Amino acid sequence: MLPGEEELDELYREVILEHYRSPRHKGELPEPTVTLERNNPVCGDVIRLHLLLDGERVKEASFTGQGCSISQASASMLMEAIQGASFQEIDALYTAFKALMYGAERPEAELGDLEALEGVKKFPVRVKCATLAWNILQEALEGHGGEKG
Ligand code: ZN
């Protein structure tokens, strides 16, 4: 173990637990453009996304559902990151997040709290938890002019 790695893991855990305990943008939207629910049968996570779109932009996004701390924290972080974002910005974010999850070289993109999920890549089963909300978002946007992930 590299010096400081233990502390880093501790910090990651704190950020993830904080989002899990106080999820951002959790709840339904009054008039969503798209609502899509998917689950992760391996872990039992269920997430439903509610998106209000304005052209090629996510005007407002929220989620409901339940599951493990990683799936719920990841959804909370994703919701926080995409409020008001264009499809193009979301695409760049998704590319950066996938690189973070699968250990590829990371492109320049601000991931903020999402970087706390980097530790998850050591556990391939949990990567499915972390990417669940992202995959739902991609699928939801595909039918509305969004690019395929
Ligand atoms: Zn899970």
Give structural attributes.
Sufe protein. Chain: A; 3 strands; 149 residues; binds zinc ion; alpha+beta; 17% strand; three-stranded antiparallel β-sheet
Can you describe what's shown?
- With 149 residues, this protein is α+β, with helices and mostly antiparallel strands.
- The protein has one domain: Sufe protein. Chain: A (Alpha-Beta Complex).
- It has helices at 5-21, 69-82, 87-102, 124-142, and strands spanning 34-40, 45-53, 58-66.
- A three-stranded antiparallel sheet has the order 1-2-3, covered by helices on one side.
- A hairpin with a 4-residue loop joins strand 1 (34-40) and strand 2 (45-53).
- Helix 2 runs parallel beside helix 4 (124-142).
- The mean pLDDT is 89.
- Bound molecules: zinc ion (ZN).
- Zinc ion (ZN) binds at residues 40, 43, 45, 67-68, 70-71, 129.
What is the element layout, followed by pairings?
Elements: H1 5-21, E1 34-40, E2 45-53, E3 58-66, H2 69-82, H3 87-102, H4 124-142
Antiparallel strand pairs: 1-2, 2-3
The structure holds zinc ion.
Task: Note the main sheet.
Answer: 3 strands, antiparallel
Q: What distance lies between the first and last C-alpha atoms, to the nearest angstrom?
A: 34 Å
**Mean pLDDT over the full residue set:** 89
Which molecules other than protein and nucleic acid are bound? Answer: zinc ion
Q: What is the CATH architecture descriptor?
A: Alpha-Beta Complex
Amount of beta strand: 15-25%
Count of separate structural domains: 1
User: How many DSSP-defined strands?
Assistant: 3
Order of helices and strands: HEEEHHH
What is the CATH C level class, in words?
Answer: Alpha Beta
Based on CA atoms alone, the radius of gyration comes out at 15 Å
* CATH topology heading: Sufe protein. Chain: A
Helix proportion range: 40-55%
Uncertain ranges = none
Shape: globular
With strands numbered from the N-terminus, the spatial order across the biggest sheet is 1-2-3
- Helix/sheet category: alpha+beta
The DSSP helix count reads 4
